[in-house]
Design a protein that fits this description.
The structure holds 2 protein chains of 2 kinds. By secondary structure, chain A is an alpha+beta fold. Chain A is built from 2 helices and 4 strands, in the order E-E-H-E-E-H. Chain A has helices spanning 28-41, 74-84; strands at residues 2-9, 16-21, 54-60, 63-68. The radius of gyration of chain A is 12 Å and the shape is globular. The two termini of chain A are 22 Å apart. Chain B is built from 10 helices and 11 strands. Chain B has helices spanning 20-27, 32-57, 103-123, 172-185, 194-216, 273-281, 283-296, 303-313, 323-338, 342-354; strands at residues 4-7, 11-14, 76-80, 90-94, 135-139, 148-150, 155-157, 226-227, 242-243, 252-253, 257-258. Chain B has a 5-stranded mixed beta sheet, with helices on one face. The chains are: A alpha+beta, B alpha+beta. Chains A and B meet through helix 1 of A and helix 2, strand 6, helix 4, helix 5 and helix 6 of B.
Amino acid sequence: MRIEVRRTGGFAGIERHAVVNTSGRPDAPEWRALAERVLAAGRGTPPLGVPDGFSYEITVDGRTVYCADPGLTEEQRELIRRVLKEGA
Amino acid sequence: MRLMTTNGGQEPVFCTVVPPHVLDKLAQAEDSALSGAARRTLERDALERTRRRLTTVIGAPAITAPVGAEPGTPHRTIYDARHGTTLPGHQVRGEGEDPGKDATVNRAYAGLGATFELLLKAYGHDSIDGNGLPLDATVHYDRDYNNAFWNGEQMVFGDGDGEIFLDFTIPIDVIGHELSHGLTQYSANLTYFGQPGALNESMSDVFGALIKQYTLGQTAAEADWLIGAGLLAPRVTGVALRSMKAPGTAYDDDVLGKDPQPATMDGYVRTGRDNGGVHINSGIPNHAFYLVATALGGYAWERAGQIWYDVLTGGELKQQALFVDFATLTVKATKDRYGQGDELTAVLKAWEQVGVRTL
């Protein structure tokens, strides 16, 4: 499973992008379960964010969902945090 | 994945994990128990979304100054999220309370006070809504959180990860920037996308910079015109996040990349990301303000700031305003307030230099 997170916006307006490929990883099932929950709760179109809030584009095996601060679900927050290795 | 659970055999209760497209489908189902619940879930989600959008679009719900509070005095409350993400968090300092041991809390409190003071002393504007609105901020939001934002009702500050960003309360212009999003929301309410979004961002940088200059007592010539100086961690190659004096030169770093801001319309960036490049193209109106302020000299919040304030709060600036609309209104505001003098020359010249027409 290929999980890609792209973050745009934020006060700095600096884009961040990271990819995790879970195949062969011992914790792959955990990643898969989390990613599936994120896809399920995600939106197909970018939500209107708040001023300086981060916007996220999460792509899992070719399917993309969108979310934005401060309206993240716990699953989205956890996945973003794991992939970007930053607070979300 | 659990799609739904039953509620004592009454009707299905949908969990938040149900995908919207599944709910759409279910809402059209012939079984009214299914469709009704799905429809209610969709309606509730839509309501929440609409509420969030309305908060940024038409302003926060009416919050009024505390009863008995004196007009012309700030009503600040600082909250601590304790590294969680629940807003507003735990109250740690209210108006008039003594400073505590947490420097972040104290900086946020002082920054709100400085913003309040500039708006009141320079422009006679009582708080960000002109009507004594209480000012709330939450600090220590999340962990390693590299951002600060305005959620439509309050400011939120992360501590930074220490690797790239430090504490977002360090630069007073960042605090002023976030609060100025409130000023914009309660006045012209510029749409946060594309050119009106870049103008919205620019208003926050302009007033954020003015708050810093006012606090330091600096003239336009003495000011650094940087946004976010002191925010980048020592290992980052850069002086700040944006430069109003020289957009595009604030940082050039292996990890962060290069400051992408243009100073003139020649460099205008068309993109769907970052709400249509709101933090990128803001460099153009930012630079125009810098040019006006330095041409006029003295304190930038006086004449240059007054012109920008007049346009932002004057009632003629539309939510969907483009650069040309804003520039044209600054010309009108300048004539209205200062006639045909140096101010007008400075304003016309500045927009010409950044490549924005005035009508």
